[in-house]
Specification:
With about 230 residues, the protein is mainly α. The protein has helices at about 5-20, 25-30, 35-45, 65-80, 85-110, 115-120, 120-140, 140-165, 180-205, 215-234, and strands at about 50-55, 60-65, 170-175. A three-stranded mixed beta sheet has the order 1-2-3. Strand 1 (about 50-55) and strand 2 (about 60-65) form a beta hairpin. Mean pLDDT is about 80; it is low at about 230-234.
Length: about 230
């Protein structure tokens, strides 16, 4: 069985974490190296496991790696959010991301609009849009990651609701197939945007903004920045 794109990317991330390249991102996401390895392992192993939820006019299955694990990780990250504002942004961002990419998939790339698929594959369109919208709505690293991953996951839920309301026979694979790749790519892209733009803002303002944020988080960020600066001096 060939590895899909999402699994290959997760394996690459494991290598980066092993060599300490992703330590900064993990610290800001409130994840340890061990925790990140466990999440990646769960995503990869779970991507090959489907749970049948319903068989009938509409067949519904739930993929563990693309559905349950991202949801559980998002709930954990949401619980670690520094402020209520960040939590609200993450939830609103996820809904907004899901609605926009559903509109793109069902209207702009719907029947008779094959020209969009010929330019770029949907597996890349969804992550690009989801990652960008998620960062704009979420702003923080955690909120952007949550909005992107859950936003793509909502795409399957919206499709299921559509089939139920229209009584059209079909199959819904929640978090499976191409959705798994899109979820992985969307979360990584949103995190990259948050890291690059957030890092630039922090450097311009001389450190992380402490207004309305968890004091422990701000202190950890300052310590992290100090260690990086010391490393550059050495």
């Amino acid at each position: 069985m060939g590895l899909n794109l999402g699994v290959i990317i997760l394996l690459a991330l494991s290598i980066l974490i092993y060599f300490g390249v992703a330590d900064r991102v993990l610290d800001r996401m409130r994840l340890s190296d061990k925790g990140a390895f466990l999440v990646i392992a769960a995503l990869i192993i779970g991507s090959f496991i489907d749970i049948p939820l319903y068989r009938g006019n509409i067949d519904v299955t739930l993929n563990i790696g693309g559905g349950i694990v991202p949801l559980a990780l998002s709930v954990y990250l949401l619980s670690k959010a520094g402020t209520s504002k960040e939590k609200i942004r993450a939830v609103v961002g996820a809904i907004l991301t899901g609605v926009i990419i559903y509109f793109i998939g069902s209207v702009l790339m719907g029947p008779g609009r094959d020209e969009f698929s010929m330019v770029i594959d949907p597996i890349y369109i969804y992550p690009l849009v989801a990652g960008t919208i998620a960062y704009i709505a979420g702003r923080s690293r955690r909120a952007a990651f949550i909005a992107a991953t859950i936003g793509v996951l909502l795409l399957d839920i919206f499709h299921l609701v559509y089939l139920i309301t229209t009584r059209i026979p079909g199959t819904v694979h929640i978090g499976g197939a191409g959705a798994f790749d899109s979820i992985v790519l969307s979360g990584i892209l949103a995190e990259m945007l948050a890291e690059i733009i957030g890092e630039g803002r922090e450097r311009l303002q001389g450190g992380p903004d402490s207004r309305g944020r968890d004091p422990e988080l701000v202190e950890n960020l300052k310590d992290l920045n100090s260690k990086e600066n010391d490393g550059r001096e050495d």
